[in-house]
Amino acid sequence: MATSEATPLNQSIPLDEIHYNEQGLVPAIAQDYLDGTILMMAWMNRESLQKTLETGEAWYWSRSRQELWHKGATSGHIQKVRSLRYDCDSDALLITIEQIGDIACHTGERSCFHQVDGKKAPPPADTLSQVFEVICDRRDNPTETSYTCKLFNGGDNKILKKIGEESAEVVMACKDDDKDAIASEVADLIYHTLVAMAHHGVEVKDVYRKLQQRRR
Ligand SMILES: N=c1c2ncn([C@@H]3O[C@H](COP(=O)(O)OP(=O)(O)OP(=O)(O)O)[C@@H](O)[C@H]3O)c2ncn1[C@@H]1O[C@H](COP(=O)(O)O)[C@@H](O)[C@H]1O
User: Fold this and answer.
1) Complex ipTM, two decimals?
2) Would you call 142 helix, strand, or coil by DSSP?
3) Dihedrals φ, ψ of 45, to 5°?
4) I want to staple 48 with a disulfide (CB 3.0 to 4.6 A). Which of 26, 42, 44, 178 is the partner?
């Protein structure tokens, strides 16, 4: 089912300057607009690219069915396109998308790019999300030696006290104009803030969404 909110992508692409291969196709890589996770790779032709631009939703070319493929049209897991770029020699597309329903892969996963160790979940693309993943794992599978677990054990009292301390250390590092210290103290502050978020069940993506909403 196509959404009624489909709106043209406010962006133009020189359709005839894209280098389609001998089958008239160009590879398109879909990337999550919030955390940059690579979700899937599929093929587009001139018509599907045009439909993508016209509707703001991802349309591909299905090589197995030899037809246009409106991604998620039957399941509701459509891909709202946030931006569309082509590379320097115009033979590959990069689409940043908002994956409705968080399922991009044919097998029902968030990403087609599963981890090589067989774990299904795709690796988050950005450092913040990777650190947050470890923090959540410590929360859910506590270990004796983990500093993060000690914070969780101390609850808000311990976690928030650390955020206060680290904030003050950021301020002092900035006052001293010590660039390395600023980076180090901000890293500490971010880490402890991520622990607070995990403690309160707030996701990194929730924060990214807020930041995206504020962009102008
Ligand atoms: N990114 C961090 C990170 N940044 C800072 N810290 C710790 O935060 C503390 C910073 O506090 P301070 O500078 O005040 O140092 P401190 O005096 O030792 O702290 P306190 O004894 O006063 O609590 C240090 O102990 C640092 O080791 C971190 N600890 C963990 N991580 C991440 O969390 C993951 C899990 O860590 P563990 O839980 O230790 O396995 C790691 O893989 C990292 O990715």
Assistant:
1) 0.91
2) coil
3) -115, -175
4) 44
Residue type, 14: P
Asked if 44 and 37 count as a contact pair (C-beta separation under 8 A), the reply is: no
- How far, in Å, CA of 78 to CA of 60, rounded? 12
What residue's CA is closest to ligand 1, atom 2?
191
**Statement: residue 120 has pLDDT above 70:** no
Annotate 135-146 with b (16+ C-beta within 10 A) or e (fewer). Answer: bbebbeeeeeeb
Rounded Cα–Cα distance for residues 204 and 194 (Å)? 8
Q: Measuring from atom 4 of ligand 1, which residue has the nearest CA?
A: 188
Burial letters 76-111, b for 16+ CB under 10 A, else e: ebbbbbbebebeeeeebbebbbebbeebbbeeebbb
pTM of the model: 0.84
Say if ligand 1 is within 6 A of residue 191 CB.
Answer: yes
